[in-house]
Each structure stands twice: as structure tokens, then as C-alpha cells.
Automatic annotation (TrEMBL):
Single annotated GO MF: oxidoreductase activity, acting on the CH-CH group of donors
Residues annotated as domain Acyl-CoA oxidase/dehydrogenase middle: 132-222
Acyl-CoA dehydrogenase C-terminal domain: residues covered: 254-373
InterPro entries for this protein: Acyl-CoA_DH_C, Acyl-CoA_Oxase/DH_mid-dom, Acyl-CoA_Oxase/DH_mid-dom_sf, AcylCo_DH-like_C, AcylCoA_DH/ox_N, AcylCoA_DH/ox_N_sf, AcylCoA_DH/oxidase_NM_dom_sf, Mito_Isobutyryl-CoADH
Residue stretches making up the Acyl-CoA dehydrogenase/oxidase N-terminal domain: 29-94
Keywords: Flavoprotein, Oxidoreductase
Stated name of the protein: Acyl-CoA dehydrogenase
SUPFAM superfamilies in the record: Acyl-CoA dehydrogenase C-terminal domain-like, Acyl-CoA dehydrogenase NM domain-like
PANTHER family given in the database record: ISOBUTYRYL-COA DEHYDROGENASE (PTHR43831), ISOBUTYRYL-COA DEHYDROGENASE, MITOCHONDRIAL (PTHR43831:SF1)
Amino acid sequence: MVTSAAQGRVAHSEPDYIARAEALAPGFAARAAEHDRTGSFPFENFRELSEAGLLSLTVPAALGGAGAGARYTARVLGIIGKADPSTALVLSMHYINHLVMGRSPTWPAKLSRKLARETVDGVALVNALRVEPELGSPSRGGLPATIARRTETGWRLTGHKIYSTGSPILKWYLVWARTDEAEPRVGQFLVPAGLPGTRIVETWDHHGLRASGSHDVIFDDVVIPLDAEVDIRKPADWNARDITQATVHTVFVAAIYDGVARAARDWFVQFLKQRVPASLGAPLATLPRAQEILGAIEVRLAVNARLLDTFARDFDDGVDLSTGESNVVKLTVTNNAVAAVEDALSLTGNHGLSRTNPLERHYRDVLCGRVHTPQDDATRIGLGRAALGL
């Protein structure tokens, strides 16, 4: 049953959710440097997101959420990513899973309704735990070492996941595992956080996105119900990527790093206006070279804005898109974002790399865009093979 609070949220338009994100962003930005310095998790940000009705942005309207599509969700993530990309990354994974489960015929309706209801009513986040120490990213192929053993009373799950973004706050893990059958099947199991045999090992001490809580999660013979099975298939049946998953993942992740680049641009503009070298006797903003560098940043960000908005709009409009095309968007936007921050650093020198200024943090954060699936080499190889007909 949809609560009265949820019904009130549904009545709002999608632009209203953008306004809510913009209202929260200054507070997130003010806290971001301290969370980065200490590696602490921004729990307060998610409490505020929940109170603003933003955790349920991609939950279907029929289940009490906003039912937002890719375009407005990417805009919200860009706003939050500009303020605190660690928060935005956790939020993006949550958004992706709810958008996919709302559209997927393989998701058990009972489970998707349960997660939707909890997200509408409170702070109940979900993320997929897929990466392992030996396997790496499943996108590169291979069977997971995490094993689900079926018994008469439930599944028993044992394994080790790394880079589990948002682990300090997640209520649900969507765990990628294989069965112990003679011919193993592979897929997703929905696991509540905090079950006996589950523990979080705080291993995340990263160069960028330090507040994302992307720690290890270890499962030691964890018992889950038989109906916790979400989508289990033969390994070969996973060869074709889900276009919904592929599209929203690439667009949402790219929007975060574009937001980081925009934060860097804003700081750079103020630096150019306020920095007055004694040898020049005028602000750096008066130099043609500074104007040209800033103009190059504007070019990259303009391309990003058009790519993200158009591609997300096409997805929402039901245009037939390809995985290769979505991969190109992610590659182009994230590399433009990295280059934009590097352009700013090329003129700021020591000021830009000083920890007293946010540009240093923006640079560390934006570099993380390159490690998200799909990585640049996989995208280029895929496109090259397609062009060769291989």
C-alpha cells in the first residue's frame, strides 16, 4: 500500500525533483572536503535525500516513487555529482537497480515491490555486488567464486566481494554468484544486509571518491530464502548485455563525472578572476591564454551536455539504442571531464594541486571515471571488431 507521504511525492513533477537536488547540493558540497579527508561515509546526505523524496526517484510511480526516466535522473546525478561525487555514485547504483527492476521481466514482482516500498518509506538502498579479488569485473568474463548452495530450507552463500560501493548504508545486496550444481548457473541473489555470516571489511582507501564506502563484503555460509533468487541462468545466457542496464549505467556514471568537471570549472573561473600576479598587475582572466583554456573547457562541457541529454531523452522516448552506442557516450563524456580538469590544472600550477583548494580533489575524483565498466579499451576493441565484421 502506498503511504500518504508517497502519494504526495508522486504529485510533484520531474523538474521539482531537480529543484530539490539543487537545494540539497550546497550542504553536500560544504561537507564533501571533510568526508574526502577522513574517508568517512556521508550518512547525513542520504537522510536528506530520503526526506526530499529523492531516493525513490526511479521507483515506478505505481509503487509510490517518482517514476523518473534517464533524462531527469541524469540531471539530478549531475547536480549531486558536482556537490559530492561519492554520494552521487552510491545514489546512481541505487537508481540503476530500481529503474532496471521496474522494467525487467526477470525480476520477481514480490521482491521488486518490497524494495520499492522500503525506498519510498525510508533510507533503504540497494546495490549490485559483482566484483571479486580473483574475477575482477564480470564484464571481462569468467565465473564468480562466490557460491550459492541450495538446501531444502534456503540458499547458503559464501564469497568475497570488493569495491562494494555504499556498503556502510546498503540495506540490500544484489550478489552475483554461481550455483554449486554440476552445471553451474550464474546470476543474482537478493541478500539483506546484516545477516549472520556477513561482514564488511573497511578496505576502501582510495585516491578518489574516498567517501563512497566501497569496502569489501564477505559472506560466510550466509542463509537466504529460496525465493531470494532473482535471475539465475546458464553462463552463456548472460553474453548479451541488457540494453536498459547498459544504457542507464553509462549515462548515470558519465553524468557524475561531468558534474565533477563542472565543479572544477566553477572554481577555475573564480581563480582566474581573483588571481592577480604582481608581474601582470591584472587578473589572470585578462590573459588570452587563460581565456582560451577556459574556452576549451567550455567546449568539452557543451559536448557532454548535448550527449547526455540527447541520449537519455532517446532512451526515455523508446528509441532503439545499442550497447556500443551507450559505451561511446560514457567514454566520451568521462574523458572530456578528465581533460577539462586537466586543462584547469595546466594554468593553476601549485595552486590547483594544493589541498587547500578543491581542484586537487576534483582531479582525484574525476580520474575514477576511467575505471568504471565499460573501460575505454573494451569500448574501443568492441567498436573496432564491429567495424571489421568480427
